[in-house]
Structures are given as C-alpha cells and as structure tokens.
C-alpha cells in the first residue's frame, strides 16, 4: 500500500548486516512529522524477517504479511 520509494527508518543492525536490496518483512508505522516528508518507522527492537523477493510478492498478493 506504500510507494516503493518511501524512506524507512530502521535499526543500524538491519542497515549494517545486510546488503542493499535485501527484502524484509517488518512491523512499521507511517510517521508524518510536521512539515516533513512521511516515512515508515520500525523500532530497533521490533522483529523482522528476511525473505526472498518472490516470497514477499507471494505474501503481498495473499495479504499474509504477519
């Protein structure tokens, strides 16, 4: 439901331990700071899963991300 170019704020562990292009399933919330560009935020303690792009597409189509 979001533009694929939307920025995401996540933990440094995610940013530093995986190469660019890695696909994650995360719990996130849309943040709209006053006057700023909206972005997705996922807390550093929230769990995440690394999945293949094909698995992500399949789960999106099935609306089964959780």
From the N-terminal CA to the C-terminal CA, the straight-line distance is 15 Å
Rg measurement, Å = 13 Å
Q: How many E strands? A: 5
Structural class: alpha+beta
Question: How do the strands of the widest beta sheet line up side by side?
Answer: 1-4-3
Largest sheet: 3 strands, mixed
Describe this structure in words.
The protein is an alpha+beta fold and 66 residues long. The protein is built from two helices and five strands, in the order βαββββα. The protein has a three-stranded mixed sheet with strand order 1-4-3, with no helix packed on it. A hairpin with a 7-residue loop joins strand 3 and strand 4. The longest helix has 9 residues. The chain is globular and about 35 Å long. The two termini are 15 Å apart. The mean pLDDT is 89.
Topology diagram in text:
Blueprint: E1 8-9, H1 12-17, E2 23-26, E3 29-31, E4 39-41, E5 48-51, H2 53-61
Précis, in short:
This protein is α+β, with helices and mostly antiparallel strands. The chain contains two helices and five strands.
Features:
66 residues; alpha+beta; three-stranded mixed sheet; 24% strand; globular
